[in-house]
Amino acid sequence: MAKDYKRDDGRKFDELREMKAKVGVVDNADGSAMFSFGDTVAIAAVYGPKKMHPQHQQNPEKGTLRCNYNMVSFSVEDRIRPGPSRRSTEISKVTEWALEPVLMIKDYPNMVIDVHISIIQASASTRCAGINAAALALAHAGIPMKNLVSSLSVGKIDKQLVVDVNKFEDSVFDEGEGATDIPFTFTGDGKITHLQLDGKISKDQFMEAMNLAKEGAKKVYEVQKKALKESLN
Amino acid sequence: MAKEIERQVVIPGEVIAKGNNYLPGEGTEKNGDEIVALRYGLSEESNKLVKVIALSGVYQPRRGNTVIGKVEGLTFNGWILNVGASENAFLPLSEVPRFVAKGELADVFDIGDLVMGKIVGVNGRGIDITVKARGLGRVDGGMIMEVNPNKVPRIIGKEGSMISLIKNETGCNITVGQNGFVWIQGKKVEDELFVRKAINFVSEKSYLQGLTEEVQKWFDKEKGGKKK
């Protein structure tokens, strides 16, 4: 099986879906961006830094990053119930952790930076698209950052490693060992800020997956860089 | 020996300069022997000092800035102003150059009024504002527009070249608050709207070099079109 697995959309194993990125899509926000992997489209809007309310959540030592990941009800084939869910609160928290290491928010005591991520079209890898959009939006909002972060997922489809899993590989495929997906987030200089894995994978194969992800993240980074540089022309 | 660094758009994490010939300025950091951008903006080098000019983001209040704020609340000893910063500004009664009877603060500045003031201090508790100087006080008449506070230096131009160009071309009086509020006073509403159009043009093209000439051209074109 592993040898003759072909991806349903005809991509190579290390090929990402077509990526699109745009900065400044939400006029009212202090910074905003759109990022898409094929049919997965995420929009991020940044508000702040602004004073933290409620007051008891203020941190006088450093600023706070507050992320909110939300899948809109029409983003998938069957309408999903709007509002926060177990899954979305978890992803919000994970997004915060993925972004915080590059953010320099120590100069914003008692303040909060709000990041609202909306997935308007979902076809797997939504958290990765969300993190990519959020990184762009934070840069666009003029928040000091050590670097950008670029996120993408690597999947293990039966025994074959693939980059940037799609809808079919994420939720339909069910043969052999099944499908496992591993979202990674790298900084621009190749350090990991976020990694999630639930499923089985050998150590060797995991290292291989990580190298694949590292290569893919470079491509994501280029798209992000281009979006930021071209937003002024 | 070290060559000039060209002005360019940089993203966080991008290396602007290498070697020990340069010093890191605002929005940059020294990492080993590289100078790295920490913000998204335009990189600029002058006298070996490399800095990044921010193009977006919220207003960062500084002492000495002249700002225009909106009255959002009255307390027993002063006014609370919104200047578009991350926290509200406070204008105490003692910083108003006239006698104000107790409980009659609303007669001086009421909620919703616009006030031009100067920042006397920024501390952990908030921003303090005064109107004790010439030209400060209530904003009366004319029109208010908002621009991105990071573009204010471009709207003013080098030694006020841009703003005086717009003033001369339109005959309007323009006051730019550092927080991005622009107060336009003209004889006719049409003049004020024209100024607004001009300022919008400037803030859209703020990344261009030689912007003042560009704006002069724009004025020539707009005015030529009007006469026909």
Can you describe this structure in just a few lines?
The complex is a heterodimer of chains A (233) and B (228). Chain A has helices at residues 86-99, 126-140, 167-172, 203-230; strands spanning 19-23, 31-37, 40-51, 64-71, 111-121, 149-157, 160-163, 179-187, 192-195. By secondary structure, chain A is an alpha+beta fold.
Folded structure, characterized:
The complex is a heterodimer of chains A (233) and B (228). By secondary structure, chain A is an alpha+beta fold. Chain A has one domain: 2-Layer Sandwich (Ribosomal Protein S5, domain 2), CATH 3.30.230. Helices cover 27% and strands 30% of the residues of chain A. Chain A contains 4 helices and 9 strands, in the order ββββαβαββαββα. Chain A is globular. Chain A starts with 18 loop residues before the first strand and ends with a helix. Chain B has 228 residues and is an alpha+beta fold. Chain B has 3 domains: 8-54, OB fold (Dihydrolipoamide Acetyltransferase, E2P) (Beta Barrel), CATH 2.40.50; 66-138, OB fold (Dihydrolipoamide Acetyltransferase, E2P) (Beta Barrel), CATH 2.40.50; 143-227, Ribosomal Protein S8, Chain: A, domain 1 (2-Layer Sandwich), CATH 3.30.1370. Chain B has 5 helices and 16 strands. Chain B has helices at residues 105-108, 152-156, 161-170, 189-204, 211-227, and strands at 8-10, 15-18, 23-24, 28-31, 34-37, 41-46, 49-54, 66-75, 78-82, 89-92, 114-123, 126-130, 137-138, 143-146, 173-176, 181-185. Chain B has a 5-stranded mixed β-barrel with strand order 8-9-10-12-11. In chain B, strands 1-6-7-3 form a 4-stranded mixed beta sheet, with no helix packed on it. Chain B has a 3-stranded antiparallel beta sheet with strand order 2-5-4, with no helix packed on it. In chain B, helix 3 runs parallel beside helix 5 (211-227). Chain B is flat and about 65 Å long. The model of chain B has no long low-confidence stretch (mean pLDDT 88). The A-B interface holds A 30-31, 48-51, 102, 104, 108-111, 139-148, 187-189, 224-225, 228-229, 232 and B 9, 11-14, 27, 29, 36, 38-41, 54-58, 86-87, 124, 150, 207.
